[in-house]
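Review this:
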Amino acid sequence: MCSLWKLRCALEHRHLRRLVRFGLVGLSGVFVNMGFLWLLTEVMGFYYILSSLVAVELSIISNFLLNNAWTFRDRSLGVVRLTALARYNLVCAGAIVGSTTILYLLTTHMGAHYLVANLIAITVTSLWNFAANAAWTWRKGQS
């Protein structure tokens, strides 16, 4: 009984540690996303929705590389595989649609500033990304 409890605690600790790592990688992605959104919109003069799509994709690639090397390193092959990147991008496609929709609704219909609305959109889609990527992109036993 005691060993089962220890095993359960270890598993829960490992999942919590992975979630924290995923969150930290995601936080770095927020900076990538927000930086490129601001740069493309304010400096380069692109329409903020177009800027958002580009910024989201750049943060997806950055997050994939960091998650592959750190968060899911025990499940990765140690190299970037195009199939894994494609799966990650597919999972995140839902986040792109969701984030852009939330961004649009909050700015256009609620008058929120586009940077604030973008942070809200990122927050809403983060849990979906973790759950789906843990279950599919870096599923246990794939390597």
